[in-house]
Amino acid sequence: MAGFDSRTGKLLVGWPHCAACLKRIFATKIGSRVLREELGNIGLKLILRENMDNRPLAVYFWCLSVAADLWEPRFRVKRFIPSEDVEDRRKGFSGTRVVGDFMPRAHLGDFTVQDADVSVNLS
Q1: What are phi and psi of 95, to 5 degrees?
Q2: Is residue 20 over pLDDT 80?
Q3: Which of 56, 66, 78, 83 matches a 20 to 30 Å C-alpha distance to 47?
């Protein structure tokens, strides 16, 4: 599968394309797309409603995992690593790294892992 970078317009193939798709899925509110209203991340509603202590953060990570499972078959989530940058947390910003396995032919039924422990930075 291939696509284009939304910022530069360059062609993306393989893992870079999958990472761009994951970022788009994680940043999209459900119902905001015209032709695919169900695509997106339900966890975005949690960010503004509650303070991010352990319980809402765990639910948010679960929402990210479900969104990746539903909309990106080429990526299997293994774990989430929250940012430990103290300055970012003081400003109210918390970046997260999503770590998982990349399976380039999973959409065709071949679940062979090409790259293990690849990560996507969400910021």
Answers
A1: -80, 160
A2: yes
A3: 78
Residue 1 lies in a domain: no
Q: Between the CA atoms of 61, 65, 36 and 23, what dihedral angle is there, to the nearest 10 degrees? A: 70
75-82/11-13 β-pairing:
unpaired
What gap in Å lies between CA 24 and CA 40, rounded to an integer? 8
pLDDT in tens, 68-119: 999 999 999 999 988 776 666 666 666 788 999 999 999 899 999 999 999 9
- Condensed to tens digits (0 to 9), the pLDDT of residues 34-70 reads 888 889 888 887 776 656 666 777 888 899 999 999 9
Q: Mean pLDDT score of the chain, rounded to an integer?
A: 85
Q: Does residue 2 sit within a domain?
A: no
Alpha-carbon span 120 to 102, nearest angstrom: 11
The owner of tokens 């090409």 is 114
Q: How far apart are CA 65 and CA 41, in angstroms?
A: 9
**Domain total of the chain:** 1
The predicted model scores a pTM of 0.83
Q: Is residue 37 part of a domain?
A: yes
Range of the domain at 64: 8-122
